[in-house]
């Protein structure tokens, strides 16, 4: 997506340009990509602002101008996204631009320079007639004439060669200077992105306020990666290596994508999700034989005691085992309840168990049977469960019989019909745990993790399979 800029006011009113380059500098400095008149557009600073392309989006960033930069009448203080037909003003009373986002097929057009005096044409020089040469009367005279003629030819050839050498030298000097300027613009643009990420990551970590420490750690890891890129960028600027700058550009693109997903996840109200759903989550013990006990997580979906868990928790990895006894204990509760297996799903890793004789019913999770939308790649999610069973400390002093669930967060990294992949920021081992969207509705059931990732890449069954399985128990 290219950007078309039309100047609506000031001495350059009517000037239009189309740019595909990643950074467009605007100001009164003559080297600006979009220059304003240095003598009449006095509200515009020398280097006032810049337009930055990130993917198919364009952003405006103030470069510390004296009079500020305004988008649609509002002064900007940070990296601001631009939409089609947005207007930018330089200073409260300065000239305005109108922005249009055009297709990549639109040809680039540099803004036409201000009209000036026409370049004078060279004067026609009248030649003076040469007098007729005397006829050489001797061999010596003829040799002198030929030497003079050859000397004039040599001088003319030498002049042409010198002209070509000067032109070629100028071409390489100008080309090298332009290459340096382009590299410097790229480095400055990446530096701005790095500064923006570091500022935003500090805000995101502060926003969490201890809600999800795993996510805060991931954000700090992104800060470290970006700071490392910042150091490498300074080294690349000093060495003048275009290849190194390009490599850093690719690394920064990956770091930016990762950070944006983490930043989006940090904006979720995790306390509200936990408070609305934690008491519907239970730890499950499944006894298959003497000293053969499996543990996992289950969660209540109906008030009469139906709970969802994983098939492998209650029936083994291949679904062929049959439990002798099943017991559940809800989060923040002392009571242990006996349960029975209702059904298992032969296609996906799901099972339904039933807890009977609970007076008044049990709390249930949100979102079951409400038509909750399937999450998209990049969406933040939360998980409540009991990682590593009862191997983790779950009780506080004075709560000998209580258990406490663990709350973790993540972002969706892949969605296919029978699987939702999550990049997690918490502990592994949460089989059977409910996965919640940013509104606190269940969207999936966690069942496993990618080996070797320490629980950072986990897999879950979409909610549609849960509702289909529950209908079989009615």
Task: Note down, in words, how this protein is organized.
This protein is α+β, with helices and mostly antiparallel strands and 474 residues long. The chain has six helices and 23 strands. The strands form four sheets. A six-stranded antiparallel sheet has the order 2-1-11-10-7-8, with no helix packed on it. A six-stranded antiparallel barrel has the order 12-13-14-17-16-15. Strands 18-19-20-23-22-21 form a six-stranded antiparallel β-barrel, surrounded by four helices. α1 (139-208) runs antiparallel to α2 (213-239).
Based on Cα principal axes, name the global outline.
elongated
Average pLDDT works out at 80
Element-by-element helix/strand order: EEEEEEEEEEEHHHHEEEHEEEEEEEEEH
Topology, number of strands:
23
Largest sheet: 6 strands, antiparallel
> Kindly, what is the distance between the CA atoms of the first and last residues, rounded to a whole number of angstroms?
53 Å
Q: What is the percent of helical residues?
A: 25-40%
Q: Radius of gyration, Cα only, in angstroms?
A: 36 Å
Strand order of the largest sheet: 2-1-11-10-7-8
- Label the structural class: alpha+beta
Poorly predicted sequence stretches spanning 5 or more consecutive residues: 114-137, 207-211, 391-398
Percentage of β-strand residues: 25-35%
């Amino acid at each position: 997506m290219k950007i078309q800029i039309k100047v609506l006011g000031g001495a350059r009113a009517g000037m239009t340009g189309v740019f595909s380059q990643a950074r467009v500098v605007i100001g009164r400095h003559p080297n600006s990509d979009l220059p304003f008149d240095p003598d009449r557009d006095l509200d515009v600073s020398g280097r006032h602002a810049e337009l930055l392309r990130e993917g198919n989006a364009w952003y405006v960033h103030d470069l510390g101008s004296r009079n500020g930069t305004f988008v649609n009448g509002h002064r900007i203080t940070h990296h601001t996204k631009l939409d089609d037909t947005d207007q930018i003003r330089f200073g409260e009373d300065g000239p305005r631009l109108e922005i249009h986002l055009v297709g990549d097929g639109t040809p680039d057009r540099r803004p036409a320079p201000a009209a000036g005096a026409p370049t004078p044409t060279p004067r026609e020089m009248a030649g003076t007639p040469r007098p007729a040469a005397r006829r050489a009367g001797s061999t010596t005279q003829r040799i002198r004439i030929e030497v003079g003629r050859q000397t004039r030819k040599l001088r003319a050839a030498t002049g042409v060669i010198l002209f070509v050498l000067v032109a070629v030298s100028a071409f390489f000097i100008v080309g090298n200077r332009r290459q340096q300027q382009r590299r410097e613009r790229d480095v400055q643009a990446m530096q701005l992105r790095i500064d923006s990420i570091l500022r935003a990551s500090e805000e995101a970590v502060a926003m969490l306020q201890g809600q999800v420490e795993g996510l805060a750690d991931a954000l700090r890891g992104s800060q470290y990666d970006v700071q490392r890129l910042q150091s490498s960028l300074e080294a690349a600027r000093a060495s003048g290596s275009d290849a190194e700058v390009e490599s850093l550009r690719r690394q920064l693109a990956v770091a930016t994508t990762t950070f944006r997903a983490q930043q989006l996840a940090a904006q979720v109200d995790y306390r509200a999700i936990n408070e609305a759903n934690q008491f519907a989550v239970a730890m499950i013990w499944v006894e298959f034989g003497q000293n053969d006990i499996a543990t996992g997580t289950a969660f209540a979906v109906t008030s009469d005691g139906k709970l969802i868990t994983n098939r492998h928790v209650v029936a083994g990895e291949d679904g062929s085992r049959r439990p002798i006894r099943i017991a559940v204990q809800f989060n923040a509760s002392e009571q242990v309840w006996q349960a029975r297996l209702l059904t298992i799903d032969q296609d996906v890793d799901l099972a339904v168990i039933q807890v009977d004789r609970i007076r008044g019913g049990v709390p249930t999770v949100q979102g079951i049977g409400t038509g909750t939308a399937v999450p998209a790649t990049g969406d933040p999610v939360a998980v409540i469960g009991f990682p590593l069973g009862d191997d983790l400390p779950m009780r506080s002093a004075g709560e000998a019989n209580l258990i406490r669930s663990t709350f973790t967060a993540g972002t969706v990294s892949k969605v296919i019909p029978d699987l939702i992949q999550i990049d997690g920021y918490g502990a592994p081992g949460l089989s059977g745990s409910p996965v919640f969207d940013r509104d606190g509705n269940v969207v999936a059931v966690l069942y496993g993790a990618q080996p070797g990732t320490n629980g950072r890449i986990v897999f879950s069954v979409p909610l549609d399979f849960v509702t289909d399985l529950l209908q079989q128990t009615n």
